[in-house]
Structure formats: structure tokens, C-alpha cells
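Recap from last week: sequence in, structure out.
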Amino acid sequence: MNCIIIEDQAPAQRILKKYIRDLGTLELKAGFSDPIAALDYLKSEKTDLIFLDIHLPKISGIDFLTTLKHPPKVIITTAFSDYAVRSYEFDVVDYLLKPFSFERFVKAVNKAMPPPSRSAKNAKHGKGKDFFIKSGYEYYKVNSSDIIYIGSDMDYTELYLPDCKHLTTETLQNWEEKLKDQDFYRVHKSFLVNLSKVRKISGNRISLEGNHKVPIGRSYKDTFISRFLK
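Predicted C-alpha cells:
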């Protein structure tokens, strides 16, 4: 999904840009401090998601929403809770109160993402295993064959799928146990990969479907290669 930021405070723009960059599933196309300039941009450029502040120069974020005939998905980012009820009249995806954490940001973005799709091939042959994952306050149905890899980052894990990424509080060890019969393999203390998604092994790096790359841990490399090449 591509997105734009409409935010007149430079520090707030910097935080959003960092969160978008760290998440990796959104493509930031532009950032605006002037909502009028953003309106001109939207007339000619396809946009999937807007991060929109409420208190803006010239017109408010709420007034901005009233000008859009066919608005993209919108996540409100504001320091004021007063407009929460009215903003939902415009079917906004979420309402983030500043300052918000990266985890809260991810929860909001997950609501905007399209549901994970299952490939026609897997649907036909019944491959993979369906299960639900809890990401924030939402539950998502995922098929194991759609997962490209799972990465661990301190207190949470991230499931990478072709069209989205989900943040969960389950440990990598739990995922390894859950997917042990689904052709997943631990290649690093922080990464579990779907062997069917591996495209190339080069040195200490694995190239996966969708241009993803993960490292191979030194203690995992020999056993991984012997299993993958058998």
C-alpha cells in the first residue's frame, strides 16, 4: 500500500516517517504540511492510505475529509481526543492519539491492510494449515503456506506475507513448534523461514519470495543447507 502524511508539525512527520520505514509494508509517497497542497496531489495521484492530523493550517483535518468525494483509507493522528466520534462518521480506519507507540501504529496499519490472500494453487490442493493470529485487538485468519518468514524482535514476532505483515506477541519458539510439520525451518536465532519460499542461498544470506532477505546464523547454516539441498 502507498501512503501520504498530512501533518504540519515536523517532529510528528519524522516519527511517522520512521514508523513507516521500520514497518516496511507501506510505501511513503509524499508528506505535506499544507492540506491544500495535499488536495491537489490527490487529484492526480492514486493513494491507498492517508495519515491525517486534525489541527492543520487553512483547514482542519475534519474539513479536509469533507472535501474528498472518494477518500482513500484514513488514519487520524492527533493530540486531541475531542474529534474521535465525529471522525468515525467518515469511516476512518483508526484514531491515534499522540504520542503513540510503534506497536499502536502497527495495529492501526493492520486494520487498513487488505486481508491475507491464499493462492489459488494452495486453495485447490488444500496445502498449508489455517489458523487465527491475534494482532493487537484483531484476529486474522492466516494460511501457513502464505507465510514467507517470521522474524523476532525482542518482545514480539512479525509474520511476513505477500501483501502484509502482522505483529504478534507469540515467541519465535512458539511459532517453530506450531509450524514444525509445515516445512518451516529456523535459520537464525531471530528468523524462521518457509522453505517453499526460498529462492537463493548466497553466502550467509537467504533470498526469499518477494525480494525478502534474511541472514543465516553460523550455527544453523550447515544443517539448513543439508536439509534444503537434500
